[in-house]
């Protein structure tokens, strides 16, 4: 379980989010919603450890501290012109598990292949990432998450620019990962669609307040 205590996320000394208190149970799904600019991505980056909290703290119960955190950023935060292929980007999901000097083994290659198949990108695996469409790019990032097999997964608008069929594939994979015990936090603009596939709690952020809405289903 992650405990969030009096957390204010922001940049340098500029506070962005309101004060947030709550906890995220292992194996649960939390959606983060709110209007543009309210601090959803900033909150996610703070959970990922990419930004230090401006105040308050985040704490994992010791036994549950995840070794690997999976993070799917928004496309605008990624350099799409870096000369790498789709396979290379998805293979980065293996990096936390392999020695820097070692090559990817057959088991890991199979994992990458399975992830690319799941998101329907097998035919584009040797393409340079700068030539992908927005939706293909998002599918590639999701495949990397699948390969990572992290216990704590943070997804920043994973459904952005994705067609309905692919949304269903993503949401059912997210569901499966949570059933295997992964804890998942997802920033969404519209969580109505997701509610058809997932059972989740919601953190609603406003300029002045944060409201933690518990799921009606008692899942944990
Ligand atoms: N690197 C940064 N440095 C300073 N301020 C930033 C930085 N990134 C974002 N901000 C500001 O922080 C605020 C919250 O941004 P954030 O991206 O977290 O909002 P959001 O709720 O995810 O918005 P959206 O729904 O538009 O994606 C905005 O006012 C934004 O301009």
Q: Summed up, what is this model?
A:
The chain has 220 residues and is α/β, with parallel strands linked by helices.
Query: Major sheet, described briefly?
Result: 6 strands, mixed
Oligomer, anyone? single chain
Please state roughly what percent of the residues sit in beta strands, choosing from under 5%, 5-15%, 15-25%, 25-35%, 35-45% or over 45%. 15-25%
The assigned CATH architecture of the largest domain is: 3-Layer(aba) Sandwich
Question: How many extended strands?
Answer: 11
Q: What number of structural domains do the residues give? A: 2
Strand order of the largest sheet: 7-8-9-5-10-11
Please tag this protein with its features.
binds adenosine-5'-triphosphate, alpha/beta, 6 helices, three-stranded antiparallel sheet, 220 residues, 28% helix, Rossmann fold, 11 strands, 2 domains
Task: Provide the fold topology.
Layout: E1 2-8, E2 10-11, E3 14-15, E4 20-24, E5 29-34, H1 40-47, E6 55-60, E7 69-72, H2 86-91, H3 106-118, H4 134-148, E8 152-156, H5 164-179, E9 183-187, H6 191-194, E10 201-205, E11 210-213
Parallel strand pairs: 5-9, 5-10, 7-8, 8-9
Antiparallel strand pairs: 1-4, 1-6, 2-3, 10-11
Helix pairs in contact: 3-4
Can you put this structure into words, describing what you see?
This protein has 220 residues and is α/β, with parallel strands linked by helices. The protein has two domains: 135 residues, P-loop containing nucleotide triphosphate hydrolases (Rossmann fold, 3-Layer(aba) Sandwich), CATH 3.40.50.300; 69 residues, no CATH class. Helices cover 28% and strands 23% of the residues. The chain contains six helices and eleven strands. The strands form three sheets. A six-stranded mixed β-sheet has the order 7-8-9-5-10-11, with helices on both faces. Helix 3 crosses helix 4. It starts with a strand and ends in a 7-residue tail after the last strand. The structure holds adenosine-5'-triphosphate. The site of adenosine-5'-triphosphate has 10 residues, from helix 1. Adenosine-5'-triphosphate binds next to helix 1.
């Amino acid at each position: 379980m992650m405990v969030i205590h009096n957390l204010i996320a922001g940049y340098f000394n500029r506070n962005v989010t309101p004060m947030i208190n709550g906890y995220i149970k292992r194996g649960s799904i939390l959606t983060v919603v709110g209007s543009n600019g309210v601090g959803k991505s900033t909150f996610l980056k703070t959970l990922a450890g990419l930004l230090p909290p401006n105040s308050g703290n985040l704490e994992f119960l010791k036994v549950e501290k995840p070794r690997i955190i999976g993070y799917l950023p928004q496309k605008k935060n990624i350099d799409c012109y870096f000369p790498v292929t789709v396979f290379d980007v998805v293979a980065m999901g293996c990096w936390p598990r392999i020695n820097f000097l070692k090559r990817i083994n057959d088991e890991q290659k199979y994992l990458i292949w399975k992830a690319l198949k799941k998101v329907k990108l097998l035919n584009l695996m040797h393409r340079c990432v700068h030539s992908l469409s927005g939706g293909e790019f998002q599918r590639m990032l999701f495949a990397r998450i699948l390969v990572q097999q992290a216990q704590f997964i943070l997804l920043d608008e994973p459904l952005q620019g994705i067609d309905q069929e692919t949304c269903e594939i993503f949401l059912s994979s997210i569901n499966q990962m949570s059933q295997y015990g992964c804890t998942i936090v997802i920033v969404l603009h519209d969580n109505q669609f997701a509610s058809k596939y997932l059972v989740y709690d919601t953190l609603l952020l406003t300029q002045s307040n944060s409201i933690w809405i518990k799921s009606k289903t008692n899942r944990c």
